[in-house]
TrEMBL record, chain B:
GO molecular function, one term: phosphate transmembrane transporter activity
One of the GO BP terms on file: phosphate ion transmembrane transport
Gene of this entry: pstC_2
Superkingdom assignment: Archaea
Subcellular location: Cell membrane
Protein name in UniProt: Phosphate transport system permease protein PstC
Automatic annotation (TrEMBL), chains C, D:
NCBIfam families documented for this protein: 3a0107s01c2
Keyword set, alphabetical order: ATP-binding, Hydrolase, Nucleotide-binding, Transport
UniProt name for this protein: Phosphate import ATP-binding protein PstB 3
E.C. number: 3.6.3.27
EC category: hydrolase
Key word ATP-binding present: yes
Domain ABC transporter as annotated: residue spans: 4-245
Gene: pstB3_2
Automatic annotation (TrEMBL), chain E:
Gene expressing this chain: pstA_2
Its membrane topology: Multi-pass membrane protein
Keyword Transmembrane: yes
Gene Ontology molecular function: any one: phosphate transmembrane transporter activity
Keyword list, A-Z: Cell membrane, Membrane, Transmembrane, Transmembrane helix, Transport
Any GO CC annotation of this UniProt entry: plasma membrane
Organism encoding this protein: Methanobrevibacter filiformis
PROSITE patterns (alphabetical): ABC_TM1
Name recorded for this polypeptide: Phosphate transport system permease protein PstA
Amino acid sequence: ERINIVGSTSVQPLGEKLAETYTENNNVLINVQGGGSGMGIRSSHQNITDIGMSSKELNNEEKKELEELILGQEGIVISVNNENNVNDLNIGQIKNIFSGKIRNWKEVGGKDLNIEVITREEGSGTRSAFEDLVMEDSKIKADAIVQSSTESVKQSIVSNPGAIGFVSYAHMSDDVKSLLVDGVDVSEETIADKSYKLQRPFIFLINGEPKDSVKEFLQWVYSPEGIKIIKEEKIVPPNSTQILKYQELLK
Amino acid sequence: MQKKKKLVEYLIEKGLFITAIFSIVIILIIFIFIINEGIPAISEYGFLNFIFGMTWAPSDSQFGVFPMIIGSICVTLLSLLMAVPLSLLCAIFMAEVAPDSVRKVLKPVIETLSGIPSVVYGFFGLIVIVPLIREQFGGTGFSMFTASLILTVMVLPTIISVSQDAIRSVPSEYREASLGLGATNWQTIKNIIFPAALPGIITAIILGMGRAIGETLAVIMVAGNVPLIPGSIFDPLRTLTSNIALEMGYATGIHYSALFTTAIVLFIIIIVLLLVAHYFQKKYSMDAYGGHA
Amino acid sequence: MNRIESKNLQVYFGDNHILKGITTEIPKNTVTALIGPSGCGKSTFLRTLNRMNDLIPNFKKEGEVLLDGDDIYSPRLDVADLRKKVGMVFQKPNPFPKSIFENVAYGLKIHGHDDKEFIAQKVEESLKSAALWNEVEDKLDNSALGLSGGQQQRLCIARTIATNPEVILMDEPCSALDPISTTKIEDLIQKLKKEYTIIIVTHNMQQATRVSKYTSFFLHGEIVESNFTDKIFVEPKEQKTEDYITGRFG
Amino acid sequence: MNRIESKNLQVYFGDNHILKGITTEIPKNTVTALIGPSGCGKSTFLRTLNRMNDLIPNFKKEGEVLLDGDDIYSPRLDVADLRKKVGMVFQKPNPFPKSIFENVAYGLKIHGHDDKEFIAQKVEESLKSAALWNEVEDKLDNSALGLSGGQQQRLCIARTIATNPEVILMDEPCSALDPISTTKIEDLIQKLKKEYTIIIVTHNMQQATRVSKYTSFFLHGEIVESNFTDKIFVEPKEQKTEDYITGRFG
Amino acid sequence: MGFSKIIPPKIAQKIMNGVFIASGIVTLLILVLILGYILVKGLPAFNLEFIFGNPIDSGKEGGIFPMIVSSLYVTLIAGLIATPFGVGAGVYMVEYANNNRIVRLIRFGAETLASIPSIVFGLFGLAFFVVFLHLGWSILSGGLVLAIMALPTIFQVSEVTISSIPNSYREGSLGLGATKWQTIYKVVLPAAIPGIVTGVILGMTRAISEAAAVMFSVGASIQTPISIFDPGRPLPLHLYMLATEGISLEKAFGTAAVLVILVLIITIVTNLVVDRYQRKIMGK
Ligand SMILES: Nc1ncnc2c1ncn2[C@@H]1O[C@H](COP(=O)(O)OP(=O)(O)OP(=O)(O)O)[C@@H](O)[C@H]1O
Ligand SMILES: Nc1ncnc2c1ncn2[C@@H]1O[C@H](COP(=O)(O)OP(=O)(O)OP(=O)(O)O)[C@@H](O)[C@H]1O
Ligand SMILES: [Mg+2]
Ligand SMILES: [Mg+2]
Ligand SMILES: O=P([O-])([O-])[O-]
């Protein structure tokens, strides 16, 4: 018996962790495959996978055909080089920095240093969420450096004193410095109570009625044991009413 | 017995023929697959708009890949410009100059170099080379030059190994004849060995070029991926392959199709570059034989 | 005066001891013939004189080889210079994969000649001396690899003499040649010997008698006897030599 | 009875007309010698008889070649069979890059022999016939490429006779050999001719006289004269033949 | 030959000797730099548990044994498929093909294949092997994709090598009555082995180091694959995920070091074997 899970590379580590723990006690093989959120959506859509993974909400058209199961919310951290003396930015400033209106750190109270914007690739779950939450009607400037993964964004910031970028909260480390957004620091609590604005969902997708083994696995995911793992991965799980709803759905 | 032998020969020839056309079959399948996926974007956006469009902004349904065409060509050529001389010199060094013991160490190590995953080259570039370039030449450090540098290192092993073998397989009679006339080692290499090995060397370069133009993951990490035409070699750029790899994971609908159209454009460029390479191959292998055999 | 001297020359290929103490003198402006059964080490000796054996990976040598009194294996000596002075015609014809013209012009060009007319004239002259001109004059641009065996051999002779070496080593230069071409090559040798020192390996006793002043008889990697050619063929000192030249050997 | 006949055979390499209407007959169980100046087409003719020229890209032929009355260029004929029957010793020795033993065993193996003892015995026998056994018996496992020129030539002879061909084409088999090895090869030819048909190209008139019953004289791609060897050398019909064999030619 | 006109040959020789040695040293430096970088960064992660253990916590902890197995598995499959096809095609081109147009077309096809970006192979593998042929995400699908990627290198290098085998060998064999195939099999191919092996090694090293192409076809399961229909996660893919998702750079470099050492062992062993073989047949 094998379950295929395909999609978002941001969700993949969590998916793997869940699979790892689950297969220890259940006689089933789980293959957790990356590829990106788009890949997850497409694969569920074409029914070549049992579960899709996405790190962004589906658009309305996609929602019609696929069922979204939210695993939790993850924060998006605005990070800068450790030597940067700026600590706090508001959403407006972040927007102006990423759209290219603000070009020097001294305009936001920092040193006289050019701002180097690092962004993720078009379509990435992290970027889509960032754009929805921050950029509104304006766009990330065209000559921003594009990096294709959390770690390469981080490394780009580590080696460049003027850099700024956004990375997912689960993979933050001391290598770079995280900024307060509108005065709020990012943490599990601030994500849970929505006071930290920059956040996006981690989602499992199913297409139609899943087979029994998949159902069992998903039920387990929403059991206390599964929720514990989600929390360990620095993801804020859905509230209990939501969980009950999913458990009902998966009966 | 007689008949059987003939039959075996016949079957072998046909079997070998099948292996030979295998690449064509695969290429065709890949072509069909790509064109099939790419057609929606072409019919919606127009192929010429696609090729000559200057803006790539999928969220606005803008799919111009011209800057990336320039990017791909520039990066490939610049890396070959650096890699070809160095690797040919090194191949000659290994085949003709270095003592046996040195070659025996160098050869497997160089081949190992081609077994290092692109991601590693990418991270090496990102962590070591990008800051270095920024400090030395200004800019962001993410640049055409950085990408070419990484590609150079990545294609070195291919060109060195293949051309080294081509050089070593030149019959030693030619070498003896030239040296026997009092030619220096270098004269012998330049006038006799190199021309005789040229077809193999060009194959090596073509293989290296293929690797350079097709490389993705490493380039993504150091090129900056800005979809604009670079003004200098220290500006960031995006290649066609990076474009595909960057966005393929997320793209849906027409955006997805547009990435396949990017692959079609890439194919066209590869074919043009190969035609150019073949032109040179033909020109120079004629010279090597100084007339027709 | 002696042009070349070898003193207790030992040659090994790996573990095989090929030349076992060759001590001999090759006088200036004469023709010296080397004879002896196949496999006795004639080619090896010849190839030691212009350091061609250096190319063979497991070649090892002891003893000395002197050219005009200088050790040719001295590290200070330039091998290319040596080989320019000591030209060689190889046992197996080995033309370059180039045109006939380029084959002969090659040596001139690498030695810095670039006057086209001079080169063309020199090529013609050399091909004529090697008795090949008539057969190739209207296909100088064809590949040399399309020549017959004997034509290739003559081409290699032309290629060697085009560069005016001072010493010429010839390893069976007439083995693939018909009597007429052979005569022409022998005439050429007679002409060359006035100014050049020539060493020729041959299996043809008549040829040795016709062209050479001295003859050395090789056997199993040693020189059994060296003497004036007319002496050695008429009254050899050693029994083995007599056996060999009378064909009673083996 | 005639083993081989060629009828108005024309051979071209590209635009070059090499053989110009060769019509001749090679009788069974005899030795036929081909003589003629270098480049006249002897090798080309020989290589046409076992279809070796098929390998040369721009080779073109007109006319017929019959072996035992069958057209060897017929599309129904199996070329490998033909070449098994018509063995060849090439002008330039071309041993395989294999051991000495494997070189000789090769032909046996490809023709389906797999009895080790038989092969070993046959290899020894062939090497002895080719007068090489004594020199190589203790290094049969060494590479054949390390042999001297003459040794390689004898190895190629051994390789050819090991497979018992019915017709043997020899392109100057003794050109790199000393007189003693030459005698041994000539003895071998004498022994073989009882059962085999042999065609030998040679530049050595004495050799032709010694070994062959018939001789054909080639010139510029044509046969000037064919006759019994003792006739052709004593009272040639054509002036050109006389000029050539008396060395007055050219 | 312009050089000799301006610079005397002997000086040219001296200069070029310098240039050759310099280029050798530069290459060596690049090698040492990159290999050294990987080993220095990766060796701290090294221990028996790392090599023989299973990954824990997405690879943050534990070992990479299943990945080593997957890597060897897919590479082996790729080699088993690509080598006969590549060498066979090379043989056909040199020894049989007489239609120039087909020859050129085939060569062109192979060269194009060699230039296709790995990501496109990845997508193709997904669409063709995984979905269309129903092979699923499996070692087999991944191996097939890698075989296609390695094919052109093996093919082209074989072709070059085989065409440089002197014709006199072929004539010698055919002249003994060997059939064409016997000649190829017993004389031409053995003489071409060293070059062919270079091609195979180059093709295989490319396959073993590929992440993008297998990303969509081999699956990413962290269980040790048993059958060819099991999914697996080759080292480069694991490395890619460890590195790019920021799971553990230390383990990522450790994985890279293991891969490099693996490739190094494979190439050194093959080269030694080829060397001995060559010495045997060439007698040098
Ligand atoms: N492959 C080839 N392409 C073009 N011309 C060729 C080729 N082989 C031979 N020839 C030409 O054909 C003619 C006859 O050559 P062939 O080898 O038959 O001469 P031959 O009589 O054997 O001479 P030799 O005694 O020197 O070996 C020569 O003029 C030669 O230049
Ligand atoms: N590269 C080599 N490696 C090992 N042994 C070799 C090599 N070259 C020659 N020999 C051996 O050295 C001996 C002498 O060879 P050489 O070529 O000097 O003979 P030769 O007198 O020129 O004979 P021939 O008249 O047949 O050309 C032979 O026994 C040969 O097998
Ligand atoms: Mg010799
Ligand atoms: Mg001939
Ligand atoms: O892989 P993503 O989570 O960035 O879509």
